[in-house]
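tokens incoming
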């Protein structure tokens, strides 16, 4: 009998233990589900996430960050500070909580405390964007340009959304020569965001001339801008009427050019994204114009359907007043005299300064030449190859493998 009683007692104890384990498992399961749900909600509904998992320092830190936003009241910031301290007790690595304390201290005018807390943030992580932006503003307030750019660099390397926030601010600052020089040094180190910034500033910089100075300085550091960035900036400068700045920048990235003559006489550049100072193809309404590789350089090839005419090739000029000679060589042009293509030099406003007809290629071994005179009241010009309509079924076809406009005697 004693043995049977012991077995009954052990059985009852086992059931109690099992019940307690089941309850504990249920509690843990509930907590686990709550925590998982809270973590999923932490971005979209951080308040609810905090209610589900008030012990999670990461979620508590995010709530403190939300309460310390730009529109926060004094009471909001007080509660945000309390939550931030609680978050750091729960998780000493909760960087958003540190950011909250930094920002709130700064807003209260306690910059010294903000800087001390920022130092702690630096020890934890350099990836928090809010503290990095505060550090940028703090450096700017102290006139510490290298320090500001160091924090720009860190933010842009560690945050995917930083370019959207910081590029617009940074491009407005390059008008300052000191900031521009420091930025050149930063970009010369080839940061991962450098190419993205160069492409952005070429089309978006509020001061196109300051952007040109930046790019010229980068060119001296052998940081080559893409063709797209170069063309975009030249276009902006010309659109704003800064022809001299446009040429200065273009010449800095295209060594050896001379404003007194046309460029790329043998079509060897063949840029995918040409600027206005390069050869620009015109392919429209069935006209086909291309620049191809040839035996001795490049060849401009064109084909124009019958009854059509118009521009084929164009290059902007910035010629000083004076007399100029146009000379070149064609291949395969065979048209009646009245429908032969011709070169025309226009003033910027459209006034025609003269024409040079391209004769049949069988004449003079394909060589052609002619003269233009640029008056003093024509600061900008456009050299254009024009096709004329013809009734020939084959239309107009041909090639030009050399053309050059230069000052007479030059």
């Amino acid at each position: 009998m004693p043995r049977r009683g012991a077995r009954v007692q052990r059985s009852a104890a086992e059931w109690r233990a099992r019940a307690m384990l089941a309850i504990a498992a249920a509690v843990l399961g509930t907590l686990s589900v709550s925590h998982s749900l809270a973590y999923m909600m932490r971005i979209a509904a951080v308040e609810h996430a905090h209610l589900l998992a008030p012990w999670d320092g990461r979620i508590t830190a995010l709530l403190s960050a939300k309460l310390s936003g730009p529109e926060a009241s004094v009471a909001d910031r007080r509660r945000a500070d309390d939550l931030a301290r609680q978050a750091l007790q729960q998780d000493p690595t909760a960087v958003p909580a540190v950011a909250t304390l930094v920002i709130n201290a700064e807003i209260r005018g306690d910059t010294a405390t903000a800087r001390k807390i920022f130092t702690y943030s630096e020890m934890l992580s350099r990836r928090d964007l809010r503290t990095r932006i505060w550090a940028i503003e703090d450096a700017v307030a102290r006139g510490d340009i290298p320090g500001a750019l160091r924090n720009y660099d860190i933010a842009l390397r560690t945050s995917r959304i930083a370019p959207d926030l910081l590029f617009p601010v940074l491009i407005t600052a390059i008008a300052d020569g000191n900031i521009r020089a420091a930025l050149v040094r930063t970009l010369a180190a080839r940061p991962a965001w450098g190419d993205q910034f160069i492409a952005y500033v070429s089309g978006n910089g509020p001061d196109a001339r300051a952007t040109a100075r930046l790019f010229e300085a980068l060119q001296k550091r052998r940081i080559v801008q893409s063709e797209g960035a170069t063309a975009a900036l030249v276009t902006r400068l010309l659109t704003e009427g800064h022809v001299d700045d446009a040429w200065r920048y273009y010449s800095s990235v295209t060594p050896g050019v001379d404003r007194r003559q046309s460029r790329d006489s043998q079509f060897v550049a063949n840029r995918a994204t040409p600027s206005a100072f390069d050869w620009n193809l015109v392919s429209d309404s069935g006209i086909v114009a291309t620049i191809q590789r040839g035996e001795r350089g490049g060849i401009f090839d064109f084909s124009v359907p019958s009854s059509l005419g118009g521009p084929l090739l164009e290059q902007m000029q910035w010629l000083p007043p004076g007399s100029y000679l146009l000379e070149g060589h064609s291949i395969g042009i065979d048209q009646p005299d009245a429908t032969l293509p011709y070169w025309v030099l226009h003033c910027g406003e459209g006034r025609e300064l003269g024409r040079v007809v391209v004769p049949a290629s069988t004449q003079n071994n394909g060589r052609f030449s002619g003269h233009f005179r640029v008056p003093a009241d024509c600061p900008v010009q456009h050299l254009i190859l024009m096709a004329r309509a013809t009734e020939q079924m084959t239309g107009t076809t041909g090639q030009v493998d050399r053309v050059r406009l230069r000052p007479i005697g030059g």
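note: The chain has 14 helices and ten strands.
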